[in-house]
Design a protein that fits this description.
Four copies of one chain form a homotetramer.
Chain A: H1 8-16, H2 22-46, E1 50-54, E2 60-65, H3 68-80, H4 84-88, H5 93-105, H6 110-126, H7 129-139, E3 151-152, H8 162-165, E4 169-173, E5 176-186, E6 193-200, E7 211-216, E8 226-231, E9 243-255, H9 261-297, E10 299-300, E11 303-304, H10 309-339, H11 348-378, H12 391-402, H13 407-421, H14 423-432, H15 438-450, H16 455-460, H17 462-478
Parallel strand pairs in A: 3-6, 4-6
Antiparallel strand pairs in A: 1-2, 4-5, 5-9, 6-7, 7-9, 8-9, 10-11
Helix pairs in contact in A: 2-3, 2-5, 5-6, 5-9, 6-7, 6-9, 9-10, 9-11, 9-12, 10-11, 10-17, 11-12, 11-13, 11-14, 11-17, 13-17, 14-15, 15-17
Chain lengths: 492, 492, 492, 492
């Protein structure tokens, strides 16, 4: 089993068995080994890219100055099929597998792919024929002319409470709408197409007053439709340009009904939470693989440090944790693939998915961050030197832990779907399809009791229970995967 | 109690009560608030300083090009008494209190102070009169002409197994020795005086062949006595220049006997481990204070995020953890102050200290890293932006977790002193002076059983037990401090 | 004479003799030698400062994150009197002398002082009593609470042809005006007060439609009155933050009449052109001083490179060029001091000044750039290493050559004032007050002939003549200064 | 003629007519337009590359961490034939043409090509068969496995007076030599093979005691044969890693006789001076092309700034200067191609070449620097913004002006070959083969007079004469080229 650590494709095969996507994954991994790794290193080393706002003639252009290598790396994933395969095969799974593989090599690069997917899916689901005809084929191109998507919700007042923080105003203008406002965390700034949350003029306050719009980079007259105020200096994910984006009467198209916007927004977040979970697992795998490589080489007290019993035990436990996390993320992926086309009123299957997605987002990111921290410690002093870049994985992991909602948010959202939909019972039933899950059954009962507390106390005392729920679910779900029988005690 | 979070001096008073050092601490804190904070920010933002190796005339100078602000900040601590007070008052405690305070504001800056102390102490203890007369007054100056010290042990092969990795050779040359070798992690590179581990020519292999030398920056003829190959790009602690240092027949003076070098080296590490523990607690306090400030300001779902029950509970638990960690680090400080002048054969008190020091180094750094990670999450998206520098504390914490020995190393060294000296019983007796400690007594018994395992299994299964030992000791020791009765549930 | 090169104050005394300002200059120079030099180095090394747009609460703040050292350095000049002395003594000369001295040490730092002066002067001259009472005392403070000024004209379409490029619109709003537009090269972004060119609504097109406004940083209600879109990454002058500034219905106050704005703008430029000339001379002095220091130290072929005849001759010629340039800039300063309070219709003295100012701006910047380039060559390979920072002076010089109008612009503007006002005859008469100037007389005649050409040919053939005019004027004016008799052939 | 400015290949065809190398040049230029330009931009933006001294196992590796793009860009020139064509066609001219073209796009990248050529040529000329067989084919590979060369002479005391400054000691060791010393400006650090100046043990002092050695990167046992102390932070030429290189008993092979080393060293410099001249012309062409592009776009006072007569005249004059400079550099290239195989005693043709090479190195670099400075001014304020990178060309030009000897050095070396070999008469005769050169004849006579002065005065008064000699020679030589009839007054 340890053999698979250094190869994401190998690990996926161990965990889910052979699939029709193996050739594509194999080719893509080969590209990363031969070319991509070095590019990803140098992009991270290069830091935040430059933003050229104006050309020499004084025209606003908002060009993002990555090295050419970056664009090659970026386009490789689109060519490999991170978008077009999902539509050609009518399945999100090939996209998620490619995102897993990407994340092993460059955690941040998964973001453009994910937000592009999160743009294409609502367009396909809610767009009218004219919109779909006009924009969808551009996103599904198999060559370097492919368009990218983006999902812009958060504004300066924060990302958790969108009902209060989104102030971007949408005003109808014939078939179109005009959006005016500032998006504060706009990932994949520069994308040719975005979905953006805004508030249709005259609508209700709060979360019910939100709608989701499709927003192209260029106006009908060829001018820029949004401007980038600046790119943000993040500690990691330098493979995705995150910017502050200014909308000024920007042309946009409503998706779905204006009154159901919040549901569309949450559906968009479903995709990114699942992708974030897979990316977290892949990052943990990478960290573990790098630490293993080091521990196999470094000598102390006369033997490889891997052969020191305390460290060896840590490796075994981390590997088991990795497999559990993968099971959690993968089951969330499969469920999303089942339910993503649903519209309100949603099925129980959808609520089961939501609970699983919150647990997966929370627990895989926590595992990735802890593993990255531990991986630095395995490297000793080298772990804190920029030269060796072991520390990069912790930087990346911290972003995964925060993007798409922190642990606090996921725990509370999980509690909410439990309170409203009794989703913990749906989860238990789902897990028990693969056999008895006594630990999970025990926790389910504890949760039932917990729900009898006052609202304040339910929240105040929830964290330890929620944490155990996530961990136990992960262990239970691993049993349903082909990879379950693999032992962690292999020779290495 | 929460009120004290924003002030390290206030927190110290809460925890240990008033001391004679309060005026000095108050003045020093005031300087930090008025001037130091902004300097520390800008030094961290500036990244690794430049090293000017040659002057325009082609003469090797190895000048470290910090901004002038840096030197002001650095000298402030020396003036405040981080060295001279320890000698004037014949107590390490004022030094440790000042290091705590420094670490609240600039975690890395404690390093120069600590290694200067770690240079002055062995010089005072083992140096002959001529050496002491020549060098000690320079380290104890109360003005900006003060000399700095440094402790250089680690070479390229690693820092844990010094017996195998130190290859620097020492050759006798009359009264002096000549050292030749490369030090790979040389903190406070540029110091006027260092203690360095080397291997006297013709001595035994392994750890018994090490000796400790005093090494000035300039040779007797005024030339550079060591050169700096480069400064290392670290992820944090940018307030201390860490370099690779080249010794080439460098003039040096033996401290203690050539055959007892490893004991002197370990005594040097005693100081830095204790300082690292205090620094970790101070960093955790800072992180908690910053997170509190943010949580008091940020609004979500209609109230301050601090007033969300889940988050509030986390604050309360973290504050309790902080107080326990402080107790652990402070008791280690006090014990070191008692035993640091001992020579072999060491007393039981010394072995008790060693166990406590390993537990403190391990547990406080772990707490600091986890608190810093959590602090980033509290800040949500802002936590990963370089602009807000919340992420700095995690970078700093990771260095504290790795410097002076990682968690693995501390756990194993703690096990060793338990195996050899039954130090866990010494610890229990020490803790019970303040009253019954049932949890610690329980663990002590478990350890006794654990010691019956095979050597391999003792190490393989040690981590969870060692972890509980650290945590339980911290809780037990808190009861002995004035701060024990403070509740965490204050209004804030 | 060479002795004076290393000290701007000494050089000024040599050139203009003792003045009442000597004590202030001496103190200020001493501060630079003791503290300022190292600060200036580190600010340049630090590159473009950060701009913190938002605080943690999401409020727009536009804070410029220089190291604390920067602010100390900046305030030092204001305390020394670069603003208040001009008003207290009713003379621009102390301001110009302090600017000269500043520029020797930090070319870019003169910019904040100059633009603050350029803000205070039109306010004093054209502001009504209420405006003056409200704002002027803040600019003239002698402590660190002093306000800074700024002069914002240029927009994205360029700075030469303001009539076409200024698009900022001013709309009357009671006593105030509201300005909306973007300033592309806004030096001293962050200043508490600015003068800005804008176009009153409904006014004529072109240059006649411009007016000059006073614009505070904060609105009457305490909010930011302008925002900084970004700070510009310049190759030098890192001691002044140059930004792109966004005006959005920003509160402003009209200075002078709306129909005479262009004259006020040109009067503002008068000040900065003269300051730029002095700064160029000071920079050339600095470069020459540094090159001299190196040439006195470096040995090649058995002697100091300064003693190689070819190089020695270059030093002598450059020193002579420096003195001539100083004469040019100083006479322009003195004339401006005479005429700056004039209003239209301007006197002949004013036109004489304008010609001299164009020649000075042109020729001193050219001399500074050439000297800086030569200084790098004197240093050989060290000249291109960032470590030695010799190259900084060329970067600084290139900005001086471009700011406030390039050589092309100055040459053409000089031609214009010659064509319109026969200013070359005024110049000749002025120069001949100090004795016969045969070369200048000769050129004056050639210019008379030149004026007979077609407009196209006048411009096409003007450069060599204009260049000789500048150079010859500089030589002629040197004769009127106390420093004229100093020989360049001193021992050094 | 202006049409050719934007294409180096087009310009070469205009100037020297069609050659057999046109297809190779065309392909190479096409690669630059499609891929190379953007890579070069990003490498310059990226600054000094990282040097990874040690791998994770603690082994010294000295790996230079450029982005992968860099290596693609670098290898492209080798594949295009910058080395192998010179040997396959037994002519330096294709190499020089490719270097010209390279320099148009990336001035610094010509350095690796030039020093590789400067390594291959002495190896081919002076190496014994075993050395040639072992190393030459590796340098001439046509694929990405090609080895690179390097030429390391300069040490910390300076590069002009090698007789005094080279202190590297060479000690014989069987067939090999062992070199110990530090090279301070080691361009193309990391090259697989270098030629290095050293001082054979026991030889005479001064310049006669120097010898030239071939030095591989790896020792016979596979270990590193030299280490890189650091890479130098240069203001430009970031496409070549310049380092400080440490030789420590490094294996090396003597080239030629130990007593004739200085001649071999000068022969190496011949190649780089010619390449530097071509590179300077190419850089001036690039600057002019960029300025032209801007002047065709920018509007001021109602018309393109190119149509302003003063600026238009500058363009015409600069173009003429460019053509003259090219003639100078190209004739030097052709002469070197004739004489490079000569051994002592050298022919008159060789001395003619030397004079021409000094004049070309001097004058083309001066022209490039002045043109780059002017190009920045044409761009106005944009010229000093890092975003537009117009300023890059001045940084590059300053390095060209200093590398391989500054103007001072070239002027004095030209004077020396005139004094010793009457080379000015050889030059006149050479130029007059293409027709009468009255100006050059006039200067030749003035030089004859000049030679009657004392040694001190000859040097003291030489610069203006030497400058006119260079300029007049350039003008005279242009008449011998096909491009001579092209007028500068074309439409553009």
């Amino acid at each position: 089993m340890f053999d698979a650590l250094a190869s994401p494709h190998h690990f996926l095969r161990e965990m889910i068995g052979p699939t029709a996507h193996d050739p594509a994954l194999k080719d893509y991994e080969q590209w990363w080994e031969q070319e991509g790794r070095a590019i990803s290193d140098s992009v991270d080393r290069g830091g935040t890219p430059w933003l050229r706002m104006f050309d020499a003639a004084g025209k606003r252009v908002d060009e993002i100055l990555y090295p050419p290598d970056y664009w090659r790396m970026l386009k490789q994933g689109y060519r490999a099929g991170v978008l077009w395969r999902a539509f050609e095969q009518d399945s999100l799974l090939p996209a998620f597998l490619l995102i897993y593989l990407t994340s092993f090599y460059d955690s941040g690069l998964s973001c453009p792919y994910t937000v592009s997917l999160s743009t294409a899916l609502p367009l396909a689901k809610y767009g009218d024929d004219r919109l779909k005809e006009r924009f969808l084929p551009k996103l599904l191109r198999q060559n370097d002319e492919v368009w990218q998507g983006a999902t812009w919700m958060t504004e300066i007042k924060g990302g958790s409470d969108l009902g209060a923080s989104v102030e971007t105003l949408a005003v109808r203008d014939g078939d179109m709408w005009r959006l005016t406002g500032d998006k504060y965390f706009a990932s994949n700034a520069g994308a040719e197409l975005a979905v953006a949350a805004a508030r249709p003029q005259g609508g209700p306050l709060g979360v019910r007053g939100l709608a989701l719009y499709l927003l192209p980079r260029w106006r009908s007259d060829g001018e820029l439709n949004y401007t980038i105020r600046r790119l943000k200096d993040k500690i990691a994910t330098r493979s995705v340009p995150t910017g502050e984006v200014e909308l000024r009467e920007s042309e946009a198209y409503l998706l779905g009904g204006a009154e159901e916007g919040i549901y569309l927004i949450l559906e968009v977040l479903n995709v990114s939470r699942v992708a974030n979970s897979l990316g977290s697992v892949a990052l943990a795998q990478r960290t573990l693989a790098d630490a293993l490589g080091f521990a196999q080489t470094r000598i102390a007290f006369g033997k490889r440090i891997l052969d020191h019993p305390l460290l060896r035990r840590q490796f075994e436990e981390r590997l088991q944790g990795l497999r559990q996390c993968f099971a959690l993320a993968w089951q969330a992926s499969q469920l999303l693939n089942e339910v993503w086309k649903e519209r309100r009123p949603y099925s129980e299957r959808y609520h089961l998915f939501r609970l699983l997605a919150h647990l997966a987002k929370y627990w895989t990111a926590e595992f990735a961050a802890q593993t990255a921290k531990w991986g630095m410690e395995v490297h000793g002093g080298l772990g804190v030197l920029e030269e060796f870049r072991v520390e990069r994985w912790l930087r990346e992991a911290m972003i995964l832990a925060i993007w798409e909602g922190t642990a606090h948010r996921q725990l509370l959202d999980a509690l909410e779907v439990i309170e409203r939909k009794q989703a913990h019972h749906l989860l238990l039933a789902f897990a028990e399809q693969g056999g008895a899950c006594p630990d999970l059954r025990q926790i389910t009962q504890e949760i039932d009791q917990h729900l009898g507390l006052s609202a304040e106390q339910r929240e105040f005392r929830w964290e330890p229970l929620g944490r155990r729920l996530a961990q136990t679910t992960a262990a239970a779900l691993l049993d349903a995967l082909p990879g379950k029988h693999k032992t962690a005690q292999g020779n290495f």
